[in-house]
Design a protein that fits this description.
Number of helices: 12
Radius of gyration: 21 Å
Largest sheet: 8 strands, mixed
Mean pLDDT: 94
Number of strands: 16
Distance between the termini: 66 Å
Helix content: 25-40%
Shape: globular
Length: 390
């Protein structure tokens, strides 16, 4: 079968479905002229901590998409570093299960009349005079414009031959019932345990509140930014779980990777926009759901403009992403990650755990809220003093 559309979107996660919904709901593109292709069949399992920060939820609400799946509120955070434990309460967002969240967004796209095919991996891709020809396992799709929303393992990137600009981060995730030591998650707080960085992990261990089958649970995992290769990340996670009284044999560990957004990362080519993790996400936290939702709106605006004007370069898309708050946030994150993680970042980690203003800034930054000049000034002065005492 052959399907012809104006915009083909590869990837049916939050980046892909939100790009499609923005095209239809915000930009007035006919839903029959937008196609979303997903390699898996919804609802599909997706290894992920499931954190959706507050600005991602606000973007969904503005799009007319309510949160209609089970979730746990992230009421704040705790930072653990060396012997320090510091908490700060501030609404951060929610934790969802990706199989439920992504499935809900997919159903909304289908209900809007968007052409949606799941269970169809992309197997071939070719440029044509007027756009692209895509071949899935079941059909051919011709399109004027293409949006790569297919995540860290992007088939579009591979088929087009787009090189990586940075090493990918590595993660493991698991879901378990709450245990006695889950002081943070029991209160709705997200634990960011930076003590693993003292052992050489370029990242953190996490315990986030979540809901599994209607019962309170904890999303646990470990994130390694992977500036330098580390082969024993799984063992680092098992050690952290054991410290919490959780046996390795009682949990199912799911590995996955992340692609950070860094300076020089490709965001667009003629007739092609890279959206969400196909372009890059937050290097400090490894978070990508809210970032995907937010960049989807920017991508849809430029794709719709290209359809109206015939200017298919999409040059303005990259510039707007990088100058937007979410783009600046991710570039700041790439800079920050290299300073906080690793053996030389102990002063930064202690500052985050031990300083009230640092935790407040971290919470506001995570939720996508502006810090304000007064808070930035206090942070700069106290951070400089803290590092000087090392």
């Amino acid at each position: 079968m052959t399907v012809d559309v104006d915009v083909a979107i590869v990837g049916g996660g939050p980046a892909g479905t939100c790009t499609a919904l923005h095209l239809v709901r915000s930009e007035g593109v006919a839903p029959s002229r937008v196609a979303v292709l997903e390699k898996a069949t919804h609802p599909r399992d997706k290894p992920c901590a499931g954190a959706v920060s507050a600005w991602g939820l606000a973007s969904l609400a503005a799009l007319g998409v309510p949160l209609d799946v089970p979730y746990a509120e992230m009421r704040g955070l705790r930072v653990l570093a060396a012997s320090l434990v510091g908490a700060h309460e501030h609404p951060l967002g929610v934790v969802v299960r990706r199989c439920e969240f992504d499935g809900s967004l997919w159903k909304r796209a289908v209900a809007d009349g968007i052409v949606a095919f799941d269970g169809e991996p992309l197997v071939a891709l070719a440029r044509t005079a007027g756009g692209w020809t895509l071949q899935t396992s079941k059909r051919t799709v011709t399109t004027r414009l293409l949006a790569a929303c297919d995540g860290v393992g992007s088939a579009v990137r591979k088929l087009v031959g787009i090189r990586e600009t940075a090493r990918k981060g590595h993660l493991y995730v698991a879901e378990t019932p709450q245990v006695r030591g889950d002081l943070g998650p029991r209160d709705g707080l997200c634990d960011f345990d930076l003590r693993v960085a003292d052992a050489g992990v370029e990242g953190y261990y996490w315990d986030f509140p979540t809901v599994v089958d209607g019962a309170p649970a904890v999303s646990r995992g470990i994130y390694h930014a992977n500036f330098s290769a580390r082969r024993d990340l799984k063992q680092d996670l098992l050690a952290s779980l054991a410290a919490r009284g959780i046996r390795a044999g009682s949990v199912r560990l799911k590995p996955f990777s992340t692609r950070p957004l860094v300076r020089g990362a490709p965001l667009r080519f003629d007739r092609l926009a890279l959206v969400g993790e196909a372009a890059g996400i937050d290097a400090t936290t490894g978070e990508g759901i809210a970032q995907a939702i937010l960049t989807a709106g920017i991508a849809a605006r430029h794709l719709a403009r290209a359809l109206r004007t015939g200017d298919t370069s999409l040059e303005g898309y990259a510039a707007e992403v990088l100058s937007s708050r979410v783009g600046r946030h991710m570039l700041q994150s790439a800079w920050l990650a290299r300073r906080v993680y690793g053996r030389r970042g102990s002063g930064w980690r202690a500052f985050l755990a031990g300083n009230t203003h640092a935790r407040e800034a971290g919470a506001r930054w995570y939720a996508g809220k502006p810090l304000g000049w007064a808070l930035k000034a206090r942070l700069g002065i106290r951070l400089a003093a803290s590092l000087a005492l090392e």
